[in-house]
Design goal:
The chain is mainly alpha-helical. It has 10 helices and 2 strands.
Amino acid sequence: MWHTQLGDRVLEGREAIFYLSAAQETVALLQDTPLEEMDWWLPATFDAVFDAATAQQKIVLLHQCLLALLDPNIPQPELTNVIEAAAYLPFQVMKSKVEEEISFASEEVWGEEDLHSYTTRKYYYRRFILQTCQSLNWKVNADIERPKIRNERSNNLELWHAAVQALAERIFWDDDWQVTTRYPGIVEGKHPQVVQVGGLSNYLTNNLPQVNDAQVILAVRAITCWQLPTAF
């Protein structure tokens, strides 16, 4: 369960499918990317603490978030900059995936013979995002702008990023975790006025979990093998 802009809820239907798929893409990226290339391939959440975590720590934190977002029996974890950044990372990964897709298409990396390949389908991520957005009710009492994207073949990256961000805003009330990048040193006690005005004293932390190989293996297995209800 998560205290989202749309109420205390778990993700369901295509929204759940989208987030789970994004989390699985994120885990694959964290597992497959060499450490020296991680900064290049893994997008930032702009929480300075979470972005500095190891891949193993990120996987375990993401699993905690996934449990709360998809399992109604799991309570929301105590929200901190680190936890919210972990929950936000899959959205950033999906933004980077659609960016790659558009870039590859413009460079004609994929030919027509590749269109039926699951991993290299020319419009795979754009189609996935569009179908997710079209399946949801956007007439809600929340400050979320309805995605304007209407065509899976659009190359307008700004609109695709906005669509993914709109999906994220169905969960997050704000982007307070990014304050650690906007105000360097804030978790060490700098900028006390920002902490006080923003009510962030119990939110900001520089603590990351100590994880072991067994925890990481279990988290990876749980995320990659997660089965959503068949009704989805």
